Amino acid sequence: MMAWRFVAIHSSGHEVVGAEWGTRADVLARLAKRGLHLVSLEPDVILAVQSLAFGASIPPDRLTFFFRDFSNMLAAGITLNHMMGTLKEAILDPRLSRACDAISCELAAGRSLAEAMAQTRQFPRLAVNAVKAGERAGNLPLVTGLLADHFELSSKLKGKCLEALIYPACVVFFLLVSLVYVSQSVVPQLAPLLPAQAMDSPLTRVMLALSGCVRHAWIMMVFIAGGIFVLAGVLIRRYPRAWYVCLRHIPGIGHVNRDLEIGLCFFDIFVLLRSGIPLDTALREAASSAGNLTGAELEQCCQYLAGGHTFSSALAQGKYFPRLVVETIRLGEEMGRYDDYCERVFKLYYRSFETRVSALVGALQPVLLGVCAVFVIAMAFAFLKPIYANLTHMGVLKP
Description:
By secondary structure, the protein is mainly alpha-helical. The protein is about 75% helix and about 5% strand. The chain folds into two domains: about 1-55; about 165-399, Up-down Bundle (Receptor-associated Protein), CATH 1.20.81.30. A hairpin with a 4-residue loop joins strand 1 (about 5-10) and strand 2 (about 15-20).
């Protein structure tokens, strides 16, 4: 997707400087719809490369600081225009800095904060709708504080998942490096020393064949692995529901993914409800940002709500959410505090997610160490043992 840098004049007379993504015709149409009279429009290759490498949206950790500072400044009584200038000076992320510029221009043109955030196309839909509800209810400091908590949680969960993957990834990487080195340098030196009877061993033949494949066809293997990776990515994007179904049936990983999706889903609902958004709208907004299966189930819940069901009975109809979730929400209905009990569901599943991730990493470590041990033992029995036996038989080594 191409990025375009534009300078335009709003109908109110204010100059607007910003960036848009898409084709030139689409950008021109969007600018005209916003009531902007174009002065200049140029492609921005650097911005396009940055968006391709790091994503067009702002990372959750940067949004955390943005909304936290935003909430504190609102509580201190600082005006929005002055606040945008102050935040821009303190922000290091170029995308967020450009977003602050665009928000300032839109505010000067008479738009609301939520409309200005939506025009930047940098903020998630959940954040825009929560801010819109906060503006209507007059509790914008509370809403921006909740959004800061939301993005801080998202960043923390992402960090936990990456942290859990570091050890297995390092072990697999070093195992592959060792396999390539042994196949390229060690096995060719040991193969001439093998006695003829060593070829009767299936293990020795397998190790020699594996070494030959790695030594002579490693380039092809790299291309095949890359092709499989790209094909898997295309299939996941094209058939996300099938991918989520398969993921949920993987032992260990499926339960972790379920707890993560349910926890984040109900935290989103909690943030939206606490912001003043009605339950049916909050469910639709949470469904738009949830995983494929969870989002589909929330959309189904919205239909049940429209048919006269309560929230808990709508959750129970789909048989997707566990009984614990349904009973907790039913208590919230009886107490008239949906937001508090959605937060309780989130806390329950967040603790479950942390426990399952720790257990999964703890189980993976001995498994990967066992794989490394099997590789070393296979090398010893396939090469070192026959060579040692041959040298002992020849009298070179003493038994």
